[in-house]
Hints:
Elements: E1 2-6, E2 9-13, E3 19-22, E4 30-32, E5 35-36, E6 39-40, E7 45-50, E8 56-60, E9 65-68, E10 76-77
Antiparallel strand pairs: 1-2, 2-3, 3-4, 5-6, 7-8, 8-9, 9-10
Amino acid sequence: xxxxxxxxxxxxxxxxxxxxxxxxxxxxxxxxxxxxxxxxxxxxxxxxxxxxxxxxxxxxxxxxxxxxxxxxxxxxxx
Length: 78
């Protein structure tokens, strides 16, 4: 449903909180889990935005938002 790219980093998101990251322009992909103390995200990812490779956000269809300041290693639910 959503794709964003900054340099070599590509992010793709879809249903059930599915978020994937490639650091090599899409040659290899890794699943990224959006989780917090309340559990894993299960909504539809409708938007992905990165200002640079380290700082980005993901918007879920229910208008909740997750953000990262470390390239997607950790995420905060807003």
